[in-house]
Amino acid sequence: MTELDLTRSLEPATVYLKDYRKPDFLVPTVDLTITLSGELATVVSVISVIRNDIHQRSVVLDGEKMDLLGLKLNGRILADNEFELEAQCLVIFTDLNEFELEITTQLKPSLNTELSGLYKSSGNFCTQCEAEGFRRITYFPDRPDVLSVYTVTLIAEKSECPILLSNGNLISSDDNSDGTHLACWHDPHPKPCYLFALVAGNLKYISDHFVTASGQKVELNIYTQEHNIGKCDHAMKALKDSMVWDEQNYGREYDLSIYNIVAVDDFNMGAMENKGLNVFNSKYVLADQQTATDTDFEGIESVIGHEYFHNWSGNRVTCRDWFQLSLKEGFTVFRDQEFSADMGSRAVKRIRDVQTLRAYQFKEDAGPMSHPIRPESYQEINNFYTVTIYEKGAEVIRMLHSLLGAKGFRNGTDLYFSKFDGQAVTTEDFVGCMEAANNTDLSQFRRWYTQSGTPTVNVEQEYQDGRLIITMIQSCPPTPNQPTKEPFQIPIKMALFSSQGTKIEEETLSLTQARQKFVYDGLSDKPILSLLRDFSAPIKLTVSRTDEELSRLIKIDDNGFSRWEAMQELSLRIIIEALESESISDEAYSVLLVALTSLIESPPEDKAIYSEMLSLPSASYITSLVENVDPIKVVEVREACITRLSRDLESQFHVIYASNNQRAEFSLSADAMAERALKNTALSYLVATDQAAYHALASHQYHMANNMTDRLAAFAALIQSNYPDRNVLVEHFYDQWSDQALVMDKWFALQATSPRLSVLEEVRRLSSHPSFSLNNPNKVRSLVGAFTSNPRGFHRKDGAGYEYLIGKIIELNKINPQVAARLTGTFNNWKSFSEPHRSLMKAQLERLFNQKDLAKDVSEIVSKALQN
Ligand code: B3K
Ligand code: ZN
Question: CA-to-CA distance for 375 and 367, rounded, in angstroms?
Fold first, then answer.
């Protein structure tokens, strides 16, 4: 076989942080007139341009995938020799230092299946400009450090597009005699073009208002298609809660008289924070008791909060360049995590966030796409909207919060917002404010921004004569382009408990050296060590602790996260040992059984934590911890454990189920949600016994439930079991919900994650189901994406699962490269699997690599996967 020419992958240009240069020209004002008619959009853009500093360079405006219809400079049509139109830019030759350009472009939004720029979703026009979509609307310096004041006039047939929205405040609207109408929007806050948005179409809305702390009244509107108008109330509540929260916690008020949110069905990610006009994936807006689960309700609250918080962390203070993405994303994720923690159960929010970090970010950091939260280079910026930038970025901000304390952190953010309001800045500016406001030195801490990889901390403890010596040794594995690392500054929250359960000591240690000792004297007995409480740093921690010590912590630790973590660690030990020795020994199993029995005898007060503690670590997390792993073995061992536990603890689970199944009225209170979670965890164990009585119990719950959380939990448990009427149930669910796109996403996902051996054939069949479409990212994620998390189907030993996925990626490469690239990332960790998986995955990656016309999104991921 001939070697692959991997240099070919270097074709898409690499952009480097070190090459950053300030913009050659500034654009203080943008005046857009956009006419939308049928399939066409005509854009007249009038921009004022100022040469930035003294230089002779020409004006280079980014632009692609549109037709240039007209070009004037100071009102004069430019001659052919005064400009040059290239594939990805428009170059204008002029000596002037200040001038006005009028650029007319035309585009076809209905043909835009990439969902970047101006496109149509369910017949309505909408935009997505971050990161580089504005250049598909008009020629412009499409970079975040060019800030402009926008005035936007939208014109369309009134019957076709009764609603016309853009950023900022509505300043006028009018009807024309030819059946068209217009709306003029003005946004007084200078913004980069990635925050521009328009929405036009036939939409309905719900309206409310908010009065800011300083007494400004803000109109709040949520727009959707008419049939979904009854599902916006939860999003509206979340928006008002977010507005209060940001005033109380960061002193940040909203700054326009209107805040619009629009829900669209076709969207590449969760939502977009365009100034005053957020565009949302309908998944993060629409919810009611009958169609949405508690997880959906929580997701809406969190994403509504996230986009709202961007108004300050992202919009008022934005990024200088895309290498600074974590400046707005890491910080805003931290803000939304804290908001959700304040609205619900803090410990459970932390548990979920850590689960996400471990399952996805740790994996990313151990593979070919590993990058620091401030990357040095990229080929396609859309590939860098990663769990590292977002979730690890948030962990880095959280560590600053831990090291500086709540007050010190707030002083830092106050300084940051006041110093840089209206500017495009860097992560260094943020850290600089934290330093200045706290009069401290964060030079070592800055390594979190530049070094990639997940640090490991090994902890040893020695106890003798009333003295405990804790030795911590940190290291960080090599990652692409970073063979060696310097020690990090790592905040480690710790506590010491006596064997009776009294807390003797509690503090935050700052680990700064490669090897460091911490000494505690005057102890009367060997204490039990609780470390990395609240998961105070994004690291892998190993501590020499006995099973007994962990079992004790499960009972006594007063930190909800650490209590859960002790249970997880104990279960992991047993499962990993079973993986190594091919089966669970009776001795190891009994440790787990005893721990769970005693948990059930004296459970934590918070039922949400209790439910999490009863659940074993996910297969994907276990898989990520083992080298040369057989992914099918992992699910088999895990399921064997669950089945055994379900039989041994059957009566206990039955009691938990019954005692948490008492509420008649549906409520979204934290208590009611926690009860549903606990009840449904118990139900899944009961159904795992595969007894007919529990199939009947779940079927009863499925049919009688007054909410989707309970209905879906019963449905999921049944279709993952050997329930004989499975197919009837699947059809029943479809008949009931086929007109609800978001519920259909759940239906596809649950079938794609079924443990049945025939799952790939089912997924293939569902790929041509009338309710499925490759053009809709939610559908792709729910069927194709969910399938990749199903080891029995995806990791089939004949390679058919891998072949199916690459086939879909090849189709998607033409339709929507961003979505195709995300799916390609599934193969990133191919080297960590055992044979035959590794070779089969590699062969499929090579098949993809050899395709003609790969979009640079896909090409970057596949070539890095094969190279590193
Ligand atoms: N800022 C957007 C993400 C844009 C992604 C572009 N590929 C959503 C968010 O993080 O709030
Ligand atoms: Zn964001």
Answer: 15
